[in-house]
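Troubleshooting: if your tokenizer reports a length mismatch, compare your output against this known-good record of 222 residues.
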Amino acid sequence: MKSYHNSIAFTILFKSIIIILMMKPKDITGVVLAGGSNRRFPVLKAFIKVDGERIIERILRIYRQLFTDILISTNTPEHFFYLGVPLVGDLYPDGGPLAGILSSMINAKGRRVFISACDMPFIKKEMIEYIIQLGDDTSVVVCKVDDKIHPLFGLYHCSVAEVIEEHLKAGKKDTKGLLKEVDTYIIDAKEIKKIDPKAENFVNINTLEDYNKFRGGRLCLD
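Known-good structure output:
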């Protein structure tokens, strides 16, 4: 009888795992951009602890609920080996975030990549899911908060890789410049507030002042 119950429990667990895997979009690779210069902060921003958790570890925890394929884009892999996530370096070492996005696209298993910078401590699973559902008919989906576009938190179709490489070869590193040349859907603040009323998702930590200001999750849409 005990063996029978164990068999039923295993079957239920197996089916639950299958359902969870089926819910994850298999054509999307989750990417953390961790290749910044980090000049304005005394430690690697990815390792800043907010509410007792390193930013990059929190991002990966959320990513694992959403994606089966995850990459970290970095030119300092020695810092990130312990996370057990595949690491990719830039093909254009001085190309900034665009270079990280391009290298991630080349290595991604999915036909789209979801990008998040490593200094965003309050990203929300629900915000990512909302962005994903808007990405079927456009090349890029990003958000706009307080008249500022956030190109390093969004969904990119890998078909734009060729355009990105053209930019990098021409010495163009501006991510926002890319958005003007490809089909881009921009989610405005009104839409964002439905999921993230305080727009905490878009807080990023660049300086010690930012850390002291936002470590408790201060508002972004004051």
